[in-house]
Design brief:
4 helices; binds magnesium ion; alpha/beta; globular; Rossmann fold; binds guanosine-5'-monophosphate
Length: 184
């Protein structure tokens, strides 16, 4: 990825497209091994997990089913509060199913923590999480995330499904924004 592909709104590439794909392949091999002989239901959290999901299902050499949830967390500014509302619920009944939640990024972990207790109350056979990215603050909340792509510094990142004001989701890499984007 050379600089001209980044455009003026990006500051730097944190994780290149090749690195993302290679890591996803590694996660897929681990998931295939762990779910060997089991029916796995991938549950994506809209909208950010869209790109991770699309690449992960094509990388996985096991049969999977897919479902989606949309949740919104109430909070002031950019920090999530842990108070969550379901905007779109699952179509599937997950009782006795092996559920693997697919996430883009875990920051405070509050949203995911709420989601996991909500899903756990529905009686799945198992419940695990795969996330492409995790930030250091996530360590403050006791959630066990089985599959983590990259632990990243506490910076705001975009690309690969992650947005700033709904922009930049289509970038094939993870990058940080130039300061002028925030101030304009
Ligand atoms: P948490 O409850 O873990 O703090 O919130 C996670 C959600 O916050 C993510 O699903 C994502 O929507 C948003 N988020 C957290 N960190 C970032 C970031 O660095 N970039 C972007 N684009 N969104 C983020
Ligand atoms: Mg997310
Ligand atoms: Mg967002």
């Amino acid at each position: 990825m050379d600089d001209k592909d980044m455009g003026p709104d990006l500051e730097k590439v944190l994780i290149s497209a090749d690195e993302v794909q290679a890591r996803l392949a590694g996660l897929a091999r681990a998931i295939e091994t762990d779910y060997d002989g089991k029916d796995v239901l991938l549950v994506g959290v809209l909208n950010g997990a869209l790109v991770v999901m699309a690449d992960l299902i094509r990388e996985l050499h096991i049969d999977t089913e897919m479902d989606w949830m949309a949740i919104s967390s109430y909070g002031a500014g950019t920090k999530s509060s842990g108070v969550v509302r379901i905007m779109k619920d699952l179509g599937a009944d997950i009782q006795n199913r092996h559920v693997l939640v697919v996430e883009d990024i875990i920051d405070s972990g509050l949203t995911l923590s709420w989601l996991l207790s909500n899903l756990r109350s529905r009686g799945p056979a198992s419940l695990e999480v795969v996330t492409l990215l995790r930030k250091p603050d996530a360590a403050k909340v006791a959630i066990d995330v089985k599959y983590v792509g990259f632990d990243i510094p506490n910076e705001f990142v975009v690309g690969y499904g992650l947005d700033y004001a709904q922009r930049f989701r289509g970038l094939p890499f993870i990058g940080t924004l130039a300061p002028h984007v925030y101030s304009s």
